[in-house]
Amino acid sequence: PERYNPHAIEGQWQERWQQSGLYTFDPQAPGQKHYALTMFPYPSGNLHIGHWYATVAPDAHARWMRMRGYNVLFPMGFDSFGLPAENAAIKRGVNPRGWTYENIAHMRGQFGRMGSMIDWTRTFATSDPEYYRWNQWFFTQFFKRGLAYKKGGLVNWCPKDQTVLANEQVVGGACERCGTPVERRNLSQWYLRITDYADELLDFSDTDMPERVRLMQTNWIGKSVGAEVTFSTPAGPETVFTTRPDTLMGATFMVLAPEHAKVKELTTDAQREAVEAYIAAAGRKTDVERQQEGEKTGVFTGSFATHPISGDQLPIWVADYVLVTYGTGSIMAVPAHDERDFAFAKKFELPIQEVIRPEGGEALDVAGSEPYVGEGLIVNSGEFDGLPGGKESIANIVEQLEARGVARAKTTFRLRDWLVGRQRYWGTPIPIIHCEQCGPQPVPDDQLPVRLPDDVEFTPTGQSPLKLDTEWVKATCPNCSGPAERDTDTMDTFVDSSWYMYRYLSPDYGAGPYDPAQRGMMPVDLYTGGIEHAILHLLYSRFWTKVMRDMGLTDQSEPFKRVRNQGMVLAEDGEKMSKSRGNVVDPDDLVAEYGADTVRTYLMFIAPWELGGPWDPKGINGPAKWLSRIWTLYFGGQPDGPRENMTEADLRYAVHSTLKKIDSDFGRMSFNTIVAALMELTNVLVRAGRSDRYGTPAWEEALNMFTLMLAPVVPHIAEELWQGRGGAGSVHLQPWPQVDESAAVRDSVNIGVQVTGKMRGQIEIGKEASQDEALVAAQANPEIAKHLEGKDVVKVIYVPGRILNIVAK
Ligand code: ANZ
Ligand code: ZN
Hints:
Blueprint (H helix, E strand, L loop, with lengths): L5 H15 L12 E6 L10 H19 L3 E3 L9 H10 L3 H17 L16 H16 L3 E11 L4 E3 L4 E2 L2 E2 L7 E10 L5 H4 L9 H11 L1 E11 L2 E7 L10 E4 L6 H4 L2 H15 L3 H5 L7 E8 L6 E6 L11 E4 L5 H10 L7 E2 L18 E3 L9 E2 L4 H10 L3 E7 L4 E2 L1 E2 L9 E4 L3 E4 L27 H4 E3 L6 E4 L3 E2 L8 H4 L22 E4 L7 H14 L12 E3 L2 E3 L16 H8 L1 H10 L6 E3 L6 H15 L12 H20 L3 H19 L7 H14 L4 H10 L16 H4 L3 E8 L2 E9 L4 H10 L1 H7 L4 E7 L3 E6 L1
Parallel strand pairs: 1-2, 1-25, 10-12, 25-26, 27-28, 29-32
Antiparallel strand pairs: 3-4, 3-7, 5-6, 7-18, 8-9, 8-17, 10-13, 11-12, 14-15, 15-16, 19-24, 20-21, 20-23, 22-23, 29-30, 31-32
Helix pairs in contact: 1-22, 16-17, 17-18, 18-20, 19-20, 19-21, 20-21, 21-22
The structure holds ligand ANZ and zinc ion.
Ligand ANZ binds next to β9 and β13.
């Protein structure tokens, strides 16, 4: 074969690898286990360039691990339930099932052309009844343990998708999927008790996640340490949560959230109209709007609370900057030391009482423009005066207040239980039977799965579509055998992805979610995917594993040992690729034109993998040319061009130092520098081919090692080169080459010295020697020195590590 033609080799190797079961994982095979996992896609149609970007670098990493002797599992499946599939099916007027599975078949073909080492014998889709059966089993287990419960209350509602959303799915007040502003509705819904694990989820000691993800999760969980203080009101005792109990004597009014249960009772007749109008207006705002900086709004209820220490009467206000979903839904307002309370007090002319003063500082100017939020000493607080105040010293104050019976230490979390029921069709039916006599009953194990009926009118109406299938709804109570009804909600698809990493370990296992004999395969050693899942999927799956641990299903507390996020491939203009902008790069077209190896190389080369970057349509020519050049190097005979001077040490140094660099770069997942190093080594090999090294054992060693080093990045051409060199077995079954440390480090190099265009000898100098040092070394060499005798050096050209050229007259 004279020219590199990827189309002539890639399909053929893909087929042969598939037939020989090259990538089939065998848990019994020797080698330490390495579980590499890339987040599975929604089968919404086509694999786009982002899927390729997310997969090929982890694939190269998994291949590298495998060649290094690890027993690597690298599976893939489809996250096939959920709104994207359902919405697309509605748009096309077809059933999501047929549509989904056609897409899966198509996308499997696309994955195949990537030349990845995915083990397709373990694949599944979460909409397979044999998969969602275990979602249901887990749900009944959670229910029995009190971790799944139904309760009424205000929930997030997406008016476009016509379903409730979990808090985690509301981003900036809008639906995470469709961007529609979220409304609030009062509904009875299913929840999973993730808050039971709030504290433990803040502990990341057993999982190596990017700092950014840890931070996002930590903020989302939002632990606040403080105290609860109880005030008496005409509607009974009212407890507030505060992180600043040291400011208790500075509380000058109380504020309730508009939805707070006591508002009605506390509102006096004179204030009723104003309060009701205010509540109605607040109800039309989103949480985000309510939390926004800007003019504070509120209304006086007409009632007063009694301060637990001073007995002062504090006016009780209603204002929407207090959220009903946080703390107790009411606050003691300390305008002197809290920004929001300060702004509120200014606007409504409420008293401001300083109680914390910086040590040696001035009294707060209550007529000024801002409160004092820092540390200091307590003032104007009677017996507490002189104690340290501020966020750092609340433990001591809490103790004092506890002793007086006016406060209790309290830790509050921002995290809420996970709302998991959805009013949509394409999901896992919630396996609960509602009996009028016995209440909600879990479906017994031997009746699972509760299958999703096929023939249902699923256009969203806001009601669960399964309600319309009256036959399906009919059930028998597992407890009293009386007539009962099935729950008609389906599960949030984040349930599906919370435990799928276990299912790959034994995808056909029928006696549980996974075969306990495979416990040792967890945790996932390297989990890769997009940052957009930082608080959804990555938090939920950590929760799920902790519950599984408490159920005795795993020994692990974390599902992922190491998590890394890739960046995004953007369009040429730096914007997000999207169909509507018409700037999408289709990987199928690229593969058809350049072959998979070139596309793989380019995607690894385009940018630091974790950052991503814009697509450059011309850029792909570089990798294409590089692979052609390699092809010619192997199959084109001795390279022509000017003769080169290269020692055996030079050549071995280039190969072994590159290997050393690549190993380190794979370890830190720096894929672009791996490709760059391989390209640089190619240049050295071409030069070596034009030197006396051609055909020597060092040359053979270099080509052998280079072939192996190429294998993780460009698996097809590497296989062809390996076979072309008469290699036995697949290149992908070969052990990874070993660095010869003595060859990889070299402090000195031999370089040729020319005097006025003629080669006059060699000098041995430090690799990084300066031009002056090189010149001194040359003048100290008698062979060279005699050509310089009696002449002036007029010009020096020095290429470190390669050549010194002296022009002398
Ligand atoms: C008195 C006080 C004085 C407060 C002071 C702060 C500063 P984090 O840290 O976010 O937990 N708060 C309590 N419940 C609230 C609710 N439902 N909606 C809005 N604000 C609420 O915030 C805790 C602080 O936020 C609490 O401490 C309370 O105000 C307010 F100088 O109490 B603080
Ligand atoms: Zn019953």
